């Protein structure tokens, strides 16, 4: 029988592939969507590519935490075991449904509600993860290994970057709608450009966070 | 934390950017064969697709010297010392050439380099496959079982890359016609057919890369070495 840990570690890395790896496509195409040399029709096509590719990081980021907790539990590094793990998976499943519904119903009142719930889930999660990490550093619990506690803290940081991206990018959708309706004018181009350029530092910070987390997971240093 | 960990991270990142960046390429290719879009838009999307496609191309070449460094540090590979430096130099030179092929697209120099690149890939596949098979037969040079299996799977991904290139050739011809003669059902059919023929090879690369990664992450549990 194959050791389940081998499959969880694989899934953990595959989620990174579809988060960090897919993000480079999102980044590149989002820079292209503000280029005036691309026609309106081309930019509509780019928006379709963005919509498709961006779904992958969204889903991968939600599944990353329960998969990481499976690994930590298998290694005996986490108090989240047994029934608690089942609960974590249940909550992650509900969150995933909310997040996917928010994306698929975007523009409707129901979509707005899903999006708000998703936002609050993230805020609560950032708080919970930060508190758990700090408690682990200072009191050795819930995570006895400092590298794991640091990973948890970095995950909270990455979620903060995600919120930064979301808040900065909130203006992009309406701006793109106006651009498609009114065409290229100084105003519509500027309205498109501002969120894409302002989102850059958040994206880069998120990538740095993910790469730092990967290194911690690989090296598992005694900190 | 030591250098081996840094190389492990690099090895994971080459996998991440290889397979992850491919998603954008895969999806935008569907837009290029969508007749709802004008030829100008399709040409532009193809250009963007080609640009993002460079990332997986570089990663396929970069992952080898990184993996060879890891294997050498474990003492499992004969590509060590000066040979390892050579492997790095060759990979970097090859990446520069692949970049030049993209950068000078359409020139005679790019065509010649494309042919050289294809020849190099056949040599590369032979250089991967032959020692891997002799190692599995017990004659070396690799010291452990999982490494030659991994190398064979990686060679499979390189073969799939050639498969994409071959099946995609009619696409380029048809796309050239689309740009000069305008859209016609025959041209659209040719493009879609060519793209559909490439899909199994694309999925093949993902599967080979994924199993290779799986072995890399779990060889200690699965093989004890």
What profile does the largest beta sheet of chain B have? none
**Largest interface: chains, residues each:** A-B, 38 and 38 residues
Structural class, judged by helices and strands of chain A?
mainly alpha
Shape estimate of chain A: elongated
Main sheet characteristics of chain A = none
**Tally the helices of chain A: what do you get?**
8
What overall form of chain B do the CA principal axes indicate? elongated
Give an account of the 3D structure:
By secondary structure, chain A is mainly α. Chain A has 8 helices and no strands. Chain A has helices at residues 4-32, 40-74, 82-104, 109-139, 146-169, 172-182, 186-198, 200-219. The longest helix of chain A is centred in the N-terminal third of the chain and has 35 residues, at 40-74. In chain A, 35% of the residues are buried. With 225 residues, chain B is mainly α. Helix content of chain B is 85%, strand content 0%. Chain B has 7 helices and no strands. Chain B has helices spanning 3-32, 39-52, 54-74, 82-103, 108-136, 146-181, 185-223. In chain B, helix 1 (3-32) runs antiparallel to helix 2. The radius of gyration of chain B is 19 Å and the shape is elongated. Chain A binds chain B through residues 3, 5-6, 9-10, 13-14, 16-26, 28-29, 32, 38-39, 41-42, 45-46, 48-49, 52-53, 56, 211, 214-215, 218-219, 221, and chain B through 1-2, 5-6, 8-9, 12-13, 15-21, 23-25, 27-28, 31, 37-38, 40-41, 44-45, 48, 51-52, 55, 210, 213-214, 217-218, 221-222.
């Amino acid at each position: 029988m194959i050791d389940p840990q081998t499959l969880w570690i694989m899934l953990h890395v595959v989620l990174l592939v579809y988060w960090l790896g897919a993000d480079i496509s999102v980044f590149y195409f989002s820079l292209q969507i503000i280029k005036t040399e691309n026609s309106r029709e081309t930019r509509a096509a780019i928006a379709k590519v963005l919509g498709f590719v961006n779904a992958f990081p969204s889903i991968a980021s939600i599944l990353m935490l329960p998969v990481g907790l499976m690994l930590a539990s298998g290694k005996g590094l986490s108090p989240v075991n047994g029934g608690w793990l089942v609960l974590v998976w249940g909550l992650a499943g509900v969150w995933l449904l909310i997040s996917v519904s928010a994306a698929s119903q975007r523009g409707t009142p129901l979509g707005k509600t899903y999006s708000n719930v998703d936002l609050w889930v993230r805020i609560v999660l950032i708080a919970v993860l930060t508190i758990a990490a700090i408690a682990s550093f200072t009191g050795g619990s819930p995570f006895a290994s400092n590298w794991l506690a640091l990973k948890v803290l970095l995950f909270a940081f990455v979620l903060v970057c995600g919120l930064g991206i979301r808040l900065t990018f909130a203006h992009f959708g309406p701006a793109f709608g106006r651009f498609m309706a009114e065409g290229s004018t100084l105003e519509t181009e500027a309205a498109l450009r501002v969120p894409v350029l302002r989102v850059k530092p958040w994206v880069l910070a998120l990538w740095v966070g993910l790469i730092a987390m990967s290194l911690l997971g690989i090296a598992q240093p005694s900190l | 934390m030591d250098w081996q960990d840094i190389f492990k991270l690099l090895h994971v990142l080459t996998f991440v950017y290889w397979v992850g960046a491919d998603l954008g390429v895969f999806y935008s290719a569907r837009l290029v064969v969508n007749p709802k879009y004008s030829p100008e838009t399709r040409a532009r999307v193809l250009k963007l697709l080609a640009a993002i496609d460079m990332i997986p191309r570089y990663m396929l070449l970069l992952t080898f010297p990184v993996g060879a460094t890891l294997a050498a540090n474990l003492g499992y590979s004969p590509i060590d010392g000066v040979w390892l430096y050579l492997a790095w130099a060759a990979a970097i030179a090859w990446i520069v050439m692949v970049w030049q092929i993209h950068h000078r697209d359409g020139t005679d120099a790019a065509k010649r380099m494309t042919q050289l690149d294809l020849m190099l890939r056949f040599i590369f596949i032979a250089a991967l496959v032959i020692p891997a098979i002799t190692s599995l037969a017990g004659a070396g040079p690799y010291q452990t079982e999982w490494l030659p299996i991994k190398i064979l799977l990686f060679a499979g991904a390189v073969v799939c890359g050639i498969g994409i290139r071959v099946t995609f050739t009619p696409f380029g011809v048809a796309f050239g016609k689309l740009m000069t003669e305008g859209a016609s059902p025959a041209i659209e059919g040719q493009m879609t057919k060519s793209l559909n023929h490439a899909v199994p090879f694309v999925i093949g690369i993902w599967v080979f890369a994924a199993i290779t990664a799986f072995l890399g992450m779990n060889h200690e549990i699965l093989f004890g070495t």
